[in-house]
Amino acid sequence: MPSTNTNDYRIATIGSHTALQILKGAQEEGLKSLCVVTPNARKIYEYYGVANEFIEVDDYRNFLQIEDELIRRNAIVIPHGSFVSYLGHEQMKKLNVMHYGTKGILEWESDRNKERIWLEKSGLKLPAIFKNPEAINRPVIIKFHGAGGGFGYFIAKSPEEFYERIKKYPKEENYVIQEYIVGVPIYVHYFYSRLKNELEIMSFDKRYESNADSIGRIAARDQLAADIQTSYTIAGNIPMVVRESLLPSLYELGENVVRTSKELVGDGLFGPFCLEGIMDTNLNFFVFEISARIVAGTNPYINGSPYTWLRYNEPMSTGRRLAREIKEAIQSGAMDKILG
Ligand code: AMP
Hints:
Layout: E1 10-14, H1 19-28, E2 32-37, H2 39-47, E3 53-56, H3 67-72, E4 75-77, H4 81-94, E5 98-99, H5 104-110, H6 112-121, E6 129-130, E7 140-144, E8 154-156, H7 159-166, E9 175-179, E10 184-193, E11 198-211, H8 220-225, E12 232-240, H9 247-264, E13 271-279, E14 285-291, H10 306-312, H11 318-331
Helix pairs in contact: 1-11, 4-5, 5-6
Bound molecules: adenosine monophosphate.
Adenosine monophosphate is lined by residues 127, 141, 143, 150, 153, 178-181, 185, 207, 209, 232, 276, 278, 288-289.
């Protein structure tokens, strides 16, 4: 029978992505915390005073070297975007240390085909996929698999343009050709509590992407003269709220995704997740990606968002919400509901 004393556990994560928020959230909920850092990253995590302990690794990819130490300290690891990308979902599956969330769902998130099946089964609108370049008959966005933060994506509107532009990437064979949706990007941050069996909308953001978000600062004629090509490298996140009348349908999308996940993988998806999409001029929301864990777009809300303020009347970040769920699970002997 696991201990129901919160002092016997520590929340742990690696120093990147949303670690500040996760550690701060643990602190606010009175849980001990541990940050795995590289010598380089240590300074900033010490500076913010959000972790009780540090363990150093020379490279986050060597995380497994310190796994036994984390197990000895009864650490509960919170996976975030960088964590998943440093380890890869295959290694994540093999982790023995306590891990928040369903590991099986990460496979559905990281494989574009599986992800699409999941989202389609959930009844979401998705951008069309073009199986081969010859089929391109409207603007498309070409995305390379595993591209870090949108780097190298390009736009084309015909097969000829595609073949011309792909020349720059002779080594890339693994890409998807997706319909380009003209509209505004919206990222919806959810939290599904398995203890309460309830979905929450935590916040929204849009990304600040280089150079897509600055091209409009110069005239079209200058863009052509400078031969500028659009790219989507993420530099940061910008907080936003949506039209209030959109809330019911966005809430329903989240519920559908959770319901379908239970059909796909044992315990299904729980905890924080994000639907990433583009809203067109008719307010159709086309989802192009799901992240089955905390996203960096929640970082503007370390002190809570307008939506968490409505529900909690106290500052409630996604990191803190996670810590609260873990605390309640520990205290009520329901650890099996949050670990995966
Ligand atoms: P991703 O790496 O898939 O998250 O996409 C990076 C960025 O590319 C997004 O934040 C959007 O700005 C843009 N994007 C991705 N897919 C589409 C799409 N189908 N239509 C329009 N813009 C897109």
